[in-house]
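Structure first, sequence second, as always.
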């Protein structure tokens, strides 16, 4: 491929890095807004979703132009197709971060308080942020081993999700006045679990780029 193709592919990677950075921040702020019941922070997460959408559109345009003008094949073509899928997964993850922020806004609006300090949910958020980071770095470096290791990390998120749901179910059974908050925390855990699943999808895309084979890492 030409030097122009290499530079354009580098531009695609730069845009993906920017998108991943904004996504990590959105996840972090969404969960912090929940822990602090900070409506202003939650609104900033919801507002930032538009920026992620714009970056996804930019990647669509960059990749479409490259395919139309350079007609890449084999691994180069897989890199571009994977970039589109990774961007789509990150856009969906940003939506889920927005859902967490909206949960904060609903709790504040209904004057609901948290009945305990959040521990497992922030831990889930930290792990999912790392998965996003590792996913993007795997794409940039073509690191299959790092991508495959994300499947084990996803298992940690699944275990935390099950722990949270079990705890919230017991709370709802024994303290019905806490049902609304417990239920919303279950949803938040579900949003984070889905973010981790999308991050694992990115890992699958890396494996596809580098090997030409599709593997189910979920």
């Amino acid at each position: 491929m030409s030097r122009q193709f290499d530079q354009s592919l580098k531009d695609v990677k730069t845009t993906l890095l920017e998108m991943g950075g904004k996504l990590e921040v959105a996840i972090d702020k969404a969960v912090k807004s929940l822990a602090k019941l900070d409506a202003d922070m939650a609104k900033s997460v919801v507002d930032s979703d538009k920026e992620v959408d714009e970056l996804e559109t930019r990647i669509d345009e960059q990749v479409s132009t490259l395919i139309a003008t350079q007609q890449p094949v084999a691994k180069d073509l897989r890199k571009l197709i994977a970039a589109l899928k990774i961007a789509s997964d990150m856009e969906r993850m940003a939506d889920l971060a927005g859902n967490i922020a909206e949960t904060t806004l609903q709790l504040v609006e209904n004057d609901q308080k948290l009945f305990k300090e959040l521990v497992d949910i922030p831990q889930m958020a930290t792990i999912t942020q790392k998965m996003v980071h590792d996913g993007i770095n795997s794409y940039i470096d073509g690191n299959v081993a790092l991508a495959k290791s994300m499947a084990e990390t996803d298992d940690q998120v699944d275990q935390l999700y099950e722990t949270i749901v079990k705890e919230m179910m017991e709370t709802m059974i024994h303290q019905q006045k806490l049902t609304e908050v417990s239920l919303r925390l279950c949803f938040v855990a579900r949003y984070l679990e889905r973010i981790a699943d999308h991050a694992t999808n990115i890992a699958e895309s890396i494996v596809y780029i580098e090997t030409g084979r599709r593997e189910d890492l979920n």
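Margin note: Residues 89 and 201 are 7 Å apart (CA to CA).
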